[in-house]
Design goal:
By secondary structure, the protein is mainly α. The chain has nine helices and no strands. Helix 4 packs across helix 9 and helix 7 packs antiparallel against helix 8. The longest helix has 24 residues.
């Protein structure tokens, strides 16, 4: 696996990147012990790299009633639907760590409807999957279902935005043929 290219598009050398992007990648490398391939792949287009990670961070790192682990559940469930190997593997690793559960990511990735999650989380994932696959069908009944599980309009926006953002991410990962780093497979197990 390590001999295969991480992308079918050019991957710039770290030394050739703008200072802010190189600093961000080095920070991630120091924290995790490796550079996730998404950083190197997207660094090919610096302006898009900056916009992508600014929106990623705004969605995924914010505090609130939807936990960071639940945000990762949304990514894993919708990335499975979109057949995005990179995101299922990488965000599955993050989900295992954030949920402190070595099984949850595999359960959510294979079939979240049978996963050991709460009814609230299942409703959240039902909505996220619908946003990802059939957003044009979203109606007031979908929002009301979420409200009965304690989600407010800000939460509903977050769920939809995460599903929509990762639909973009999934498609770009698939088009670039982005390879998951080997390190992800063992994380949180």
């Amino acid at each position: 696996m390590t001999n295969l290219p991480i992308s079918r598009f050019p991957v710039p050398k770290l030394a050739d990147l703008p200072d802010d992007i190189r600093a961000r990648i080095e920070e991630v490398q120091e924290k995790s012990g490796f550079v996730p391939n998404v950083f190197l792949t997207l660094a090919n287009r610096p302006d898009e790299f900056r916009a992508f990670f600014a929106y990623h961070d705004a969605l995924m790192e914010k505090p609130g009633p939807i936990t960071k682990a639940e945000r990762e559940m949304i990514v894993v469930a919708t990335s499975n639907l979109n057949q995005c190997q990179y995101c299922v593997v990488s965000h599955g690793a993050i989900l295992r760590i954030r949920a402190k559960d070595p099984l949850i990511a595999d359960q959510v990735a294979v079939n979240y409807r049978k996963a050991d999650i709460t009814s609230r989380q299942r409703a959240m994932l039902d909505f996220a999957v619908k946003v990802s696959a059939n957003a044009q069908e979203i109606g007031e009944a979908d929002l009301n279902t979420l409200r009965t599980h304690g989600f407010d309009d800000e939460d509903i926006w977050d769920i939809a935005a995460i599903a929509a953002f990762f639909a973009l991410s999934n498609r770009m990962a698939n088009v670039t043929n982005m390879r998951p780093n080997a390190e992800f497979y063992a994380m949180g197990r």
